[in-house]
Design brief:
Largest sheet: 4 strands, mixed
Order of helices and strands: EHEHEEHHH
Mean pLDDT: 89
Number of helices: 5
Shape: elongated
Distance between the termini: 12 Å
Length: 139
């Protein structure tokens, strides 16, 4: 979002596992843009500690819990009397904790230090909801 403040940069946050079409659209728009373009993509990884055949499911959870917001900021459409920020994500309908429970990188702390894990998850839930709300208010 910081890059959008420069007003001439194309910026997108995409998640191919949740929405292939919007991901492809962001790539096309970024290529057409006459200026700097930045696409940030949700990228599943075996080090996250879940079975990679479940990548699509986990990608969808990342979007549905608000962990991975999906948007495009296209300064080129200002000429069409539209706001440059377009929301491509979904509304939060899954608990943030459900997303975290699937990944060993988050489960490990719960196994080694449950009290600290509970505290950090509680903070992460609040931070995630606030970040999601802040982005949505920009529309």
């Amino acid at each position: 979002l910081m890059m959008t403040t420069y007003s001439k940069a194309y910026v997108a946050s995409v998640n191919k596992g949740k929405d292939r079409e919007k991901t492809a659209l962001a790539i096309v728009e970024a290529e057409k843009h006459n200026g700097p373009s930045l696409i940030i993509a949700y990228s599943p990884c075996i080090a996250h500690g879940y079975d990679m055949k479940l990548t699509k499911k986990q990608s969808e959870k990342a979007a549905k819990c608000g962990y991975w917001p999906m948007y495009r900021f296209n300064p080129d459409i200002r000429n069409e009397n539209q706001g440059p920020l377009m929301w491509d994500g979904v509304e939060i309908d899954t608990g943030f904790e459900d997303y975290l429970q699937e990944e060993i990188r988050y489960k490990t702390l719960n196994m080694t230090n449950p009290e600290e894990s509970a505290r950090l998850v509680s903070e992460a839930v609040k931070d995630n909801a606030k970040r999601f709300q802040d982005i949505k208010q920009l529309l």
